[in-house]
Amino acid sequence: MADKNTFYITTPIYYPSGKLHIGNTYTTVLADAAARYHRLLNEDVYFLTGTDEHGLKIEQKAEKLNMTPQQYVDGMAADIQKLWADLDITNDGFIRTTDDFHEKAIQKIFQQFLDQDDIYKGEYEGWYSVDDEEYFTESQLAEVYRDENGKVIGGKAPSGHEVELVKEESYFFRMGKYADWLLDYYKSHPEFIQPESRMNEMISNFIKPGLEDLAVTRTAFKWGVPVLSDPKHVVYVWIDALSNYITALGYGSDDTTLFDKFWPANVQLVGKEIVRFHTIYWPIMLHALGLPLPKQVLGHGWLTMRDGKMSKSKGNVVYPDTLADRYGIDAVRYYLLRAMPYGNDGIFTPEDFVSKLNYDLANDLGNLLNRTVAMINKYEDGVIPALNSGATEFDADLVQTANDVIKAYNENMQAMHTADALAEVWKLISRANKYIDETTPWTLAKDEAQADKLASVMAHLAAALRVAAILLQPALTRAPKQIFHQLGLAESNLQIADLKFEDLPAGGKVVAKGEPIFPRVDVEAEVAYIRDEMTGGAAKPAEETEASYIEVPTKDLIEFDDFDKVEMRVAEILEVTEVEKSNKLLRFKLNDGTKEGRTILSGIKKWYPEYAGLVGKKVAFVANLKPRKMMGEMSEGMLLSAEKDGNVILTILPDEIEAGSELG
């Protein structure tokens, strides 16, 4: 099985019933960043994605378009592969469940389960959602329709899709037979499901109530893999779809070279809505086949809109190619990887997208590069000086920041905390910008006696940009190369493995005139453009849209002296834990700029079930609120948050604001 220097990562295979939006794209970009990172560590990487092409929904979709199912999925698969190529996705494999080798392997796998008595024939009766390709019991429905006599006649799945009553002969997998084994596996492999809260959800919601046997074939349609021994049955989605992760590597074929090399997978990325299938059904199937389980299944959150999940019917869908065509691939990739907190949902807004483009990419990174190239041309004849640290009193702190960032970045990337890894890179970028203001090169240039010090400053800025560019390679595919080019650095020896600030090559010739790698955009115009694209050209004028959001209630007006009594400061979250015997409170350990720090209890547990992802964030808090006892513990202040329509969101501040800073 997989050796120590391999890395196998997968995305779910996408159902090609419609065009993929930016929420679907996040998973693939996240997987690509991980694959690129591990290649830069000199590991042998295999990155798999693909399409799940069978099922009733595809059959019906093709019929409406007067096409065969195969013709329909061929076109959709081509579109998806083009999208991934346009976004610089570096997948090594792309599997389609209509691939001949996959279908043959599925038939072998099904027959093995039959021979082992893991599968038996019975009859299924229950509620089925065509859109979800999933069966539901009455108790699992989000909404139930009844006739005048109270009889259930229909309903909606948790996804909001309509269900219909299905009664047909089916084969069932004996999932309940493996429930105890699975629980024991969870206990002995706590790292298997990430974030950890997903494991608790699986145990509480699905395993402890009793794991039901799973219907694994259908007879009501033909677009699927036929069962060899009973061809009127086609293999239902989960055996067919889930097995792609091993059939793509050659499992069940005559050539198992890739399977022997890369299985088990290091990370399998899935959206939180399909965690159950990947952490209950999939491990049980693998165990029944006598195969090792993936080392980790990571169930990430959704990229949502202000009004909930993306939906064409709501007019709130954003497509990645639309954004990439206008703002560039790097802007889209950066936004997706930076805006999504680990394990939690992220919220897309046009304002946030444009803000990250203008401030993070154009101002922070782009401006640092522009200033550095211009100053090296002006003060050093365009040649990067040798790096000799210690010439200014600020050198040591910049070098230490870089070394700390490299270490923290690697820890975060290894753990798939990509947003936090990028936040670390921006710590270095912010520190380098501050370094310019501290060393004032324009002042040093006026004194010939300061020539060596000025040269050292230029070298330190080039070194900081070099480190940032190398660390950004997994996330951004174009900008790092542009940074290397503008600094005159060869695109060799740019591995993240063994990266050191001090390894700046001297003598590189910067370009004569650096072009902005991320031009600033007009905020109002671009926000309006994105809104218009989201609504298919039916967006209201900006002023009308803004005015119609919400009627904001106000409290009684206060005097300035009343406001001046409130002391609001910035803190960094060091640790978040649950308060025992409380289903509301979380305990926050904060760095508030003081030696002692402080603890604040906040009743936001409901809105932050993946609270571990808050560690390292900067938040606003009321510092001079009288301490009070809650559940037997002292709370020393209050975290500031926003509340609307019953949703609570912490006020997260930019990373560059120092803990202890006063707000006002």
Concise summary:
This protein is of the alpha+beta class.
- Describe the main β-sheet briefly: 7 strands, antiparallel
Per CATH, the class of the largest domain reads: Alpha Beta
Task: Using the CA coordinates, give the radius of gyration.
Answer: 28 Å
Mean pLDDT: 89
Structural class: alpha+beta
Cα(first) to Cα(last) distance is 58 Å
Total of domains: 4
For this entry, what is the oligomeric state of its chains?
single chain
Please identify, by name, the CATH architecture of the largest domain.
Answer: 3-Layer(aba) Sandwich
Question: DSSP strand (E) fraction?
Answer: 15-25%
Question: Count of helical segments?
Answer: 21
Helix content: 25-40%
State the shape: globular
**Poorly predicted ranges (pLDDT <50, ≥5 residues)?**
538-554
CATH topology of the largest domain: Rossmann fold
Full CATH superfamily name of the largest domain: HUPs
Overall description:
- It catalyses: tRNA(Met) + L-methionine + ATP = L-methionyl-tRNA(Met) + AMP + diphosphate.
- Keywords: Aminoacyl-tRNA synthetase, ATP-binding, Cytoplasm, Ligase, Nucleotide-binding, Protein biosynthesis, RNA-binding, tRNA-binding.
- Homodimer.
- This protein is of the alpha+beta class.
- It has 21 helices and 28 strands.
- The strands form seven sheets. Strands 18, 19, 20, 21, 24, 27 and 28 form a seven-stranded antiparallel beta sheet that branches. Strands 3-2-1-14-15-9 form a six-stranded parallel beta sheet, with helices on both faces. Strands 4, 5, 6, 7, 8 and 10 form a six-stranded antiparallel beta sheet that branches.
- A hairpin with a 6-residue loop joins strand 19 and strand 20.
- Helix 12 packs across helix 13.
